[in-house]
Amino acid sequence: MYIVLPIGHEDQRVQRWPVVTIGLIVLNLALLIYSQAAMKQQARVIRQRWQEFARYYMENVELDLPQKLKDMLPKDKLNQIDFSRSLGGTLRSTPEELETSQKHLNQLFDRVLEATQASVFYRYGYIPDKGGVLQMVTYAFLHGGFWHFFGNMLILWLVAPNIEDTMGRILFPLFYLVSAVFAAMGHAIFHSASQVPLIGASGAVAAMMGAFLIKMTRTRIRFFYVVFFFFFKAGTFSLPAYIVLPIWLGIQVLQGLISISVKIVSVAFWAHVAGFLFGLFMSLILKHSKVEEKYIEKSLEKKVGLFKQEYLRALELIDTGQSTQALPVLQRLMKEQRGDPIVGAELAKIYLARGDTAKAQMYANTAYAAFLSRDMPDSVVELYENMLAADAAFLPAARICLEIAGLLRRRQRYEEAMSLCRQAFNLYRQTPLSVELVITYSDILLKDQADVEQAARFLSRARRFFNGRPRRLQKLEAYIQENLGSL
């Protein structure tokens, strides 16, 4: 058995916050909470009515299932019901009695349908046999449970911010809603008689994937995998979008073909296919008509240009010794750009120069975290060097110190990485991450400098320091056992 989950891609940096994407996720979450609470109560009524119907049907073996129910169930299910029912029940002796009982059975099933069709999913989900313009949109905001919601929103978060960034905040939500409509139409074409409500954002999300394939064709997508069969293995790998997404589409088409003959479909494969193709072709049309280039990108460039002008004005004030005047400009930009790391780095430098280490660390940590999340290692190291030059004793948070030490190590700047680990350990020795700093320092000695003797001496001292801190000592002992055996 195995699990594969996408966890990111190499081009997740965007020029502005994906507020529409975030809004969609929040809206879906709110509706998930509401619909699950409503369905819990509605399901109780539906279950009670099903039990009444099933009990009466099983007790009266001469009665026929209502035609509406026969149309809904696959043949193998009907055979199972007939077999179970043949094991017992009451025979009616007169036609009048039989007719009355059959009428009562039909009424019981009508009560089941009435309760079912009053549920949230039936009212706002899209039912191909019933249709409904409003439902072709509302179904995309309903989910059957947390994992259904989580899977769709995970993919949406990975691909939609880039689409929103290029399409803009007016065209993107329209594109998303129209994608949901086309996905519903695709499902209805192949399951036109289905009375099961279609719910879930997967069709609209598939359209985002199709658009992503056009806009980010060569972007490598990162995956996390777990394999557990006769062994256990976990790790990550990456593949370009032009390989992963067509394979996914092919799987959906294959499974969709298999599902055509099935009356009750649990996964809307054709909604995925239709959504993906709509997103792909719409992106091709936008690309070749140059709509984004003519209108959306120019608008974005104008906003970014204004930001750059303000930022450069602030830098000019700093260079001329007017950091006090630059401060409100940078603070306003920080708020407008929602924590831009470049602005945060400048604010950290100003506050450090003014001796306000608390605010300096706040802005520096924010900038470091943003640079790391956007996969900008050079910017992280540059900020560290600037802050170190301003104040040799100034350090970011412990976790960020570990990240920076790793970056310095990859650049073969071992002495600087070890110096950072020593300083950070002295500052954060009482925190859980202190053992991670010790292990990183030891790893450089052992694996990068091949100084086994010094590493052994250092680890012996560290062992004594962590005595009395069982969790940290246990982690250190595991590292020692793996790398040095016994000390």
The CATH architecture of the largest domain can be given as Up-down Bundle
Q: How far is it from the N-terminal to the C-terminal residue, by CA?
A: 40 Å
Number of helices: 21
Output the structural class: mainly alpha
Spans where pLDDT lies below 50 across 5 or more residues: 300-306
The CATH topology of the largest domain, please? Rhomboid-like fold
* Helix content class: over 70%
SSE order, as H and E? EHHHHHHHHHEEHHHHHHHHHHHH
Shape category = elongated
Compute the gyration radius: what is it? Answer: 31 Å
Relative strand content: 5-15%
List the strand order in the largest sheet. 1-2-3
- How many domains comprise the coordinates? 4
How would you characterize this protein structure?
The chain has 21 helices and three strands. By secondary structure, it is mostly helical. The protein folds into four domains: 2-16 and 127-289, Up-down Bundle (Rhomboid-like fold); 48-123, no CATH class; 313-394, Serine Threonine Protein Phosphatase 5, Tetratricopeptide repeat; 398-487, Serine Threonine Protein Phosphatase 5, Tetratricopeptide repeat (Alpha Horseshoe), CATH 1.25.40. A three-stranded antiparallel β-sheet has the order 1-2-3. The protein is elongated and about 100 Å long.
